[in-house]
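Dear support,

I submitted the protein below through the web form. The confirmation email said the job was done, but the results page showed an empty box. After a refresh the structure appeared. I'm attaching both so you can tell me whether what I see now is the final result or a partial one.
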Amino acid sequence: MNINFHPLGDQAVILELGEEITIPIHEKVKQVANFFEQASPEWVIEYIPSFTTVTVIYHPVMVMKQEGQKASPFTLVCEKLQFLLSQWTAGETTPSRTVEIPVCYGGECGPDLDIVANHTKLSTEEVIDIHSSGDYLVYMIGFAPGFPYIGGMSDKIATPRKASPRLKIPAGSIGIAGNQTGIYPLETPGGWQLIGRTPLQLFLPDEHIPSLLRAGDKIKFSAISYEEYQQRVSEQC
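What the results page shows now:
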């Protein structure tokens, strides 16, 4: 498999597995990240999978101690990674979880639902039906702890992000930006069009795996009433 290596600062390297966001490239990203996780070299700090790349953060001092001063840490790490990858064979599609995300659409939970409906020339009910009936895939986690970048949304409800971002977006807010949908795990600034909110907590700092969602998860959105949303929120308090 053709992989391009790019330096990222003085202690990280980006492995580029493709140039387009596709499911086959996503599967390769997951498989490479899982392979590195199992190999677990001591000079590696962390692996970060994204849409088309895997970033490897490493200990430059440890690499230099192991290999001497014959080359730069980046060159040595690339050699090590190429050796590891020579032992890896692309396998079958890795198993995926399916996670159901309940959503209260519109109202104070989705203040931009009307904007999306007007932009797409659909009714709010049609936007909700299209959004909640899609087959979605989490391509990566980024931007904020536990924030999923979710692909698979219908182009029928694609809407540009806001020209002026909000300073505060409530945790659990579900937004649209272009042809992507995502969920804000924490109260943060953001410019996505907000169409609903989930009572689920996506960022769980006290858990061993602090993110509810992971790259490779399949997502099913389901519409709930505002009363059910409030009840489920109160049960978590």
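Response: this is the final, complete result; the empty box was a page-load delay. The longest strand covers residues 98-105.
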